Amino acid sequence: MALQYVGLSEINGPLVVLDHVKDASYDEMVELQLKDGSTRSGRIVEIEGERVVVQVFEGTNALSLANTKTRLLGHPMELPLSMEMLGRVFSGAGRPIDGLGDIYAEKSADINGQPLNPVSRVYPRNYINTGISSIDCLMTLIRGQKLPIFSGSGLPHNQLAVQIVKQAKIADEAGQGFAVVFAAMGVTNDVANYFRRSFEEAGVMQRVVMFMNLSNDPIIERILTPRCALTAAEYLAFEHDMHVLVIYTDVTSYCEALREFSSSKGEIPGRKGYPGYLYSDLASLYERAGIAKGAKGSVTQIPILTMPNNDITHPVPDLTGYITEGQITLDPELNATGIYPPVGVLPSLSRLMKDGIGEGFTRADHQDVANQLFACYAHVQDVKSLTSVIGEDELSEADKKYMEFGRLFEQHFLNQGFDTNRSIEETLDLGWLLLSVLPKNTLDRIDNAVVDKFYDHEKAVKEFNLHEDVVIKELKDAVTNG
C-alpha cells in the first residue's frame, strides 16, 4: 500500500523538506499533489534519518506547507524508450513537446544509466566523418570517443553543432545505423527554434532525437537533460546496434544550474562557487561514451561548452579537459577575420586519433599529412611573432613562403563555410595541395616516397594563383635541393 504524506516541513527554492518519512531511497521519484488537484514531479536528493529533501522539477511556486500531498513512487526517474523517438522533440525531462503525442514505449530505463564495466570496454577504432576539414584531418573524431568543443561568447558553436548534425556520417556503412541525439540546455527560444528549423530544412530530422531545455525552464530540468539524452543514446546503441553521436550544449549552463542547486542545499562551495563534486558529476556524463564488448553500436560524445571570459582555466573547461580525450578549441581571432569554422588548430587535439585513422580507416597518408600541416602551421605562428618585431619585408625567403602557406591554409583549409561538406579524400587532397606550396625539402615529417607520390607544386601554383616570380624561384629551389 502506497503511503501519502500530507503537508511539507519546509520550502527552499526548488527544494521541499518532509519529516517522518520511512523507507525512502536516494534518487527515488515522488509525486506532489497541489490543493487544486494538479501534480508535480520530484526526486529525493538528500536523506537524514526520517527527514528527506525533495527536488521539485516544475518549481515550488503555489506549493502549500499545509495542503500539499506527497507520494513516494518507489523507483528512480525513468525515460520511456522506443525507436519512435527518432525524429521527435522532447523537453529536458523527456516529455514530448512537438505536439505529436506520447511515444509507445518498448521499455523504460533509469536516466542515470548502468555503469559500464571497464573490462567490458572496447578500445575506440574507426572514425566519424563530420565533413569539416580541420576536424576530420587534424583532430579526427573516433567512434566511442568524447571530444568536447571549447567555445566562447559570440563564437559560432551553435552553427558548428548544426553543421556536424547535418553532415556527420560513419564511413563504412554510408550512414546506415547512424543516429544523432541532440540536447540543448538553457538556450533561448530563438536558439531552440534555430536548431529545430535547421534540422528540418536539412532533411536530417528523421535520424535525430532532440531534447530541449529552455532558459526559462526550471533549472532542475537542466540537470536531467543530458542524462535523458544519454539514456536514449545508450538504448539506440546497445539495443538497436546503431552508432550514435551525442551533441549537447551548453555544458556551462548545466554546471551553473548544478551550482545553483548545490547552493540551495546549503553545500560548501568549491572553486568559483561550484560544488566540490563537479568533477565526478561531469565524469558521470562523459564516461557514458564508449563501446561495450559484444555490442555492435557505439556512443560518441561532443559536449559543447562556452568558456567564461574565454578562460580555459575556468573549472568547467579545466575539469572537462581532464576527463575527455582531447578538445576542439574555437579561436576568437580567426572568427574576427571571418573564417568559419574558426577552429584553433594548435590548442586542439584528439588523443584517440592515431588509432582510428590510416590504412583501413581513412587513408594511408592521413597521419603524415596531419603531422606536417600541424608542424608547418606551428612554424607560421613563430614567423608571425618574428614579423611583429622586424616586419614582413625583413623575413627570409623561406619564412615568406611559410607566411604564404599560413594565409592559404586559413583561407582554403580552415575556412570552408557552413554548407560545404568535404569527404576525407577531398580534405587530404587539399592538405597535400597546400603542402605543395612549400619547397619539397621542408616537408620533413613525411617519408620521401610518400612526398614523391603526392607532392605537386605546379598544380598548387595554378590552384592558388601564386605569383610567377615566386613560382620560378620555388621551382629553382626544388631543382637545386633535389
Explained architecture:
- With 482 residues, the chain is α/β, with parallel strands linked by helices.
- The strands form 4 sheets. An 8-stranded mixed β-sheet has the order 9-16-15-17-18-13-19-20, sandwiched between helices.
- The termini are far apart.
- It is built from 14 helices and 20 strands.
- A hairpin with a 5-residue loop joins β4 and β5.
User: Helix amount, in percent?
Assistant: 25-40%
- Work out the number of β strands: 20
Low-confidence stretches: 468-472
User: Biggest sheet, strands in spatial order?
Assistant: 9-16-15-17-18-13-19-20
Q: What does the largest sheet look like? A: 8 strands, mixed
Strand content: 15-25%
Radius of gyration: 26 Å
Briefly, what is this?
With 482 residues, the chain is an alpha/beta fold. 36% of the residues lie in helices and 22% in strands.
Keywords:
7-stranded antiparallel beta sheet, elongated, alpha/beta, 482 residues
Topology of helices and strands:
Blueprint: E1 4-6, E2 10-12, E3 15-18, E4 28-33, E5 39-48, E6 51-56, E7 69-76, E8 78-81, E9 89-91, E10 107-110, E11 127-129, H1 133-138, E12 141-142, E13 149-151, H2 157-167, E14 169-170, E15 178-187, H3 189-202, E16 208-214, H4 219-239, E17 243-249, H5 251-264, H6 278-286, E18 298-306, H7 315-323, E19 326-330, H8 332-336, E20 343-350, H9 366-390, H10 397-414, H11 424-435, H12 448-454, H13 457-464, H14 468-480
Parallel strand pairs: 9-16, 13-18, 13-19, 15-16, 15-17, 17-18
Antiparallel strand pairs: 1-7, 2-3, 3-6, 4-5, 4-7, 5-6, 8-10, 11-12, 11-14, 19-20
